[in-house]
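Memo to structure team: turn this sequence into structure tokens by end of day. - J.P.
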Amino acid sequence: MPLIPEEPQIHESAQGPRATPAAGRPAPTPRPVPGPRSAASPRPGRPGPGPARPTPAAPRPHTGGGQPTPRPENRSGASRNQPQIQLIPAPVDGAVDAAEEAIDLLLESGRAPGEILVLTTGEQHPWAAHELSFGEGSYWAQHDAGDDVFFADASAADRASARPVVVVAVNGGDDATAASALPAAMNRADALLIVCGDPQRINAVLGTAV
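Reply from structure team:
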């Protein structure tokens, strides 16, 4: 059935501030004051001003002390529980900002950065564009390390591993792009799928797919 953006809040485990949109227009998700972040795990999406950046550390080999992040194959709804779905109303040019605010709420509520995958249907997120300028090898090495929020184009969703939370910013692209991005994102979300965009367009594209 179509998504109804009645209450844009993080349902899964978020306990931060919540916002209820006023009648007739959506209200942005409140941005909490982000807590301090260590230099060892900078927040993606804020590339530094300089042209150079440290070479990302190579993924550590699995030694048996913990479980490695697997690269799952496509999973059908019959073999796994469907994730919770939340729609955050946002215009096309505000979808990325809405996704950023959702990420802040997730981090404030206790989600680890490595549990979050962000997909964009239009222009690449600035962090992804910045990292891709150094080559796809180092870019995907950061994905495989699985220790920070990872941003990717929706067309690359099939290459990304599943994560507990997937955030989709419908910030452009045609209807065919959105129609393929949402099911792919759902297939990558273990617990929560957050979609930021125009509710009418999203529901028109998806119909009863979700």
